[in-house]
Amino acid sequence: MVGFRAGDVPPTATVKFIGAGTAACIADLFTFPLDTAKVRLQIQGETKSPANTGHGPVKYRGVFGTISTMVRVEGPRSLYSGLVAGLQRQMSFASVRIGLYDSVKQFYTKGSDHVGIGSRLMAGCTTGAMAVALAQPTDVVKVRFQAQISAGASKRYHGTMDAYRTIAKEEGFRGLWKGTGPNITRNAIVNCTELVTYDLIKDALIKSSLMNDDLPCHFTSAFGAGFCTTVIASPVDVVKTRYMNSAQGQYSGALNCAVAMLTKEGPKAFYKGFMPSFLRLGSWNVVMFVTYEQLKRALMANCLHVY
Question: Which positions does the entry assign to Solcar repeats (predicted)?
Fold first, then answer.
């Protein structure tokens, strides 16, 4: 292997798994407050929710208004409520949906050098669904923590493991997989839009010689992917958050939740939290994809050095 650079050798599945999981966790550390603000804005307007039990209604206005209100009422730590479950989610979720994407894409192309949009979409849907099936309980706990008003003494969950135990005890093990349907839908859309648009933008920039396969190219591709994903996925993301955080019996299903939102709050309800969602997805994509690309090269360079 002497004389080869890391970029000359395709990264192995192990490198993709480790790189994707690590990069996603780093991205989450940077963007978690925006994700928490998004969740608070998305659930605002519900008449009953386990997160608000024992507390008066708190009004949130805009991204930074929500963040400043949370810091003032609940303290700075509230912005990172649910971080442990969030990192557990990213390590398992991103490793599958991003780490397996190239391999699944190659499976659908059956070894062909030509990769069409259909193969990319199928790969995105497949890895997104697989990731949700694995990581759903961590997502449920993360959302419950982010929605929970942490000021006062009537907190519903007092730690990550306590949340897993409480949900399983009160709602059964099925409670840990609550919202799997809308989450699979949401993540199939997110995964397709995010990975496919990143893939397409990056390929277009490189093939047109506008940019090389380097950091500025990765940054531009990731930011574009973040915007496209937010526009397309916001409605199902709001329904997913509302349904996962709902009290038992509040909604008969995800579709009932969507209908209730439409009739009580109007179509705009489906784009609640759009700005923090875009800021979060845009910045998350930039940090994650840029880190992922660099980690892949660093890990492959280390492998080549060893061998």
Answer: 11-107, 115-204, 213-298
